[in-house]
């Protein structure tokens, strides 16, 4: 028979058991809470996670590409910078409205139209639909960042039919080809400065800008095929030069003129940074002389300059320079720039300088000649 002491002992044991259970519950709760808090602290920002994806399509119709501005070796992604890398996905009706239903009055050249989107000027280019897939594939496999001397790809509009569209940063002063080889008059509604020509300071600055962009591309894109020509170098309102973006280069309908092609490309179809340097050298020669890369008689500009320099005749070199420059340039400075361009078009690819070396030499020339790097407002009036 149970004594009262037994009941008391059982009661005390029960109380102790309940107390232990409650303590265990509190302990487990606190442990879970601490784990959750630590998890939150260690979890990357969800926005950064989304932005770090190399390719995504979100509900806001934007495609994001990872990469940061200017610091090529920084493994971290800055959220603010990444947001600027967003490429808009436009619907066709938006582009129709932006270009007044692709009016002839908005046609700049070929398949490129001037448009207004979100209150800003843009260039809208009609391209084969397959180009959009090529661009998306390339961008998803490359680390893409912006550079001030490159035209930005702002958006795309993929259609079901054969044609789609690229939306590009607008260069209000057209292409370098327009200025050096004519074409300004027919674009007077788009280019306010069409009654003028580029002076020596501007030409040297344009070469430096393009060299900086080329150096950037060779550092960040592999393999790199810039398809450089005067047609793919554009001038903004302040006459800063910008190389056409990746999407624009991929969508070029025209074949690159033979005069831009490096010997190894002609022989073996070899694509390399050195081949880009050759094309850049030809562009420099065009900027200096005002002559086309391939004359009517079939002579290449890259061969012509070698003949001129071998003559060691100063007057022959002066005659070779663009006559619109007049006497507005330092002849000694011009000789240095011509020789730099000449080194870029060596037949031997291994003898050509790198884009970085070209940019450094041009910068030194700019500093030697006391030329400011921002000269968009310096012009020489055209004749007449």
UniProtKB/TrEMBL annotation:
For the Protein kinase domain, which residue ranges apply? 98-366
Write the record's keywords in alphabetical order, separated by commas: Membrane, Transmembrane, Transmembrane helix
Pfam families per UniProt: PK_Tyr_Ser-Thr
Query: What GO molecular function annotations does the UniProt record carry, in alphabetical order?
Result: ATP binding; protein kinase activity
Ranges that cross the membrane: 6-28
Q: Which CDD domains match?
A: TM_EGFR-like
- PANTHER family named among the record's database cross-references: LYSM-DOMAIN RECEPTOR-LIKE KINASE-RELATED, PROTEIN LYK2
Q: What is this protein called?
A: Protein kinase domain-containing protein
- Its source organism is Perilla frutescens var. hirtella (Perilla citriodora)
Q: What is the lineage of its organism?
A: Eukaryota, Viridiplantae, Streptophyta, Embryophyta, Tracheophyta
């Amino acid at each position: 028979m149970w004594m009262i002491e037994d009941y008391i002992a059982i009661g005390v044991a029960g109380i102790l058991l309940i107390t232990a259970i409650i303590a265990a519950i509190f302990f487990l709760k606190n442990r879970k809470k601490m784990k959750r808090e630590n998890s939150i602290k260690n979890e990357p920002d969800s926005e950064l996670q989304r932005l770090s994806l190399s390719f995504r399509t979100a509900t806001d119709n934007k495609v994001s590409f990872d990469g940061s501005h200017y610091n090529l070796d920084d493994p971290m992604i800055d959220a603010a910078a990444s947001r600027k890398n967003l490429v808009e996905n436009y619907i066709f009706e938006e582009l129709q409205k932006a270009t007044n239903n692709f009016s002839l009055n908005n046609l700049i050249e070929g398949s490129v139209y001037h448009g207004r989107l979100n209150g800003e000027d843009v260039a809208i280019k009609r391209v084969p639909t397959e180009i959009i897939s090529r661009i998306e594939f390339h961008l998803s496999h490359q680390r893409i960042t912006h550079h001030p001397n490159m035209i930005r790809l702002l958006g795309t509009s993929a259609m079901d039919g054969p044609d789609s569209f690229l939306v590009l940063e607008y260069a209000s002063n057209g292409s370098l080809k327009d200025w050096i080889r004519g074409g300004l008059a027919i674009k007077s509604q788009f280019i306010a400065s069409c009654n003028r020509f580029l002076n020596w300071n501007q030409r040297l600055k344009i070469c430096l800008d393009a060299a900086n962009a080329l150096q950037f591309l060779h550092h960040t894109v592999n393999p790199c095929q810039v398809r450089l020509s005067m047609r793919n170098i554009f001038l903004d309102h302040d006459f800063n030069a910008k190389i056409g973006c990746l999407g624009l280069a991929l969508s070029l309908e025209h074949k690159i003129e033979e005069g831009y092609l490096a010997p190894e490309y002609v022989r073996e179809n070899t694509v390399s940074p050195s081949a880009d340097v050759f094309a850049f050298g030809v562009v420099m020669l065009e900027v200096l002389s005002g002559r086309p890369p391939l004359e009517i008689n079939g002579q290449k500009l890259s061969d012509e300059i070698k003949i001129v320099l071998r003559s060691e005749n100063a007057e022959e070199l002066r005659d070779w320079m663009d006559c619109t420059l007049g006497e507005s340039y330092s002849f000694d400075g011009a000789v240095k720039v011509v020789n730099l361009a000449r080194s870029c078009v060596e037949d031997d690819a291994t003898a050509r300088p790198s884009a970085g070396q070209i940019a450094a030499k041009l910068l030194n020339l700019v500093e030697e000649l006391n030329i400011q790097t921002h000269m968009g407002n310096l012009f020489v009036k055209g004749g007449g």
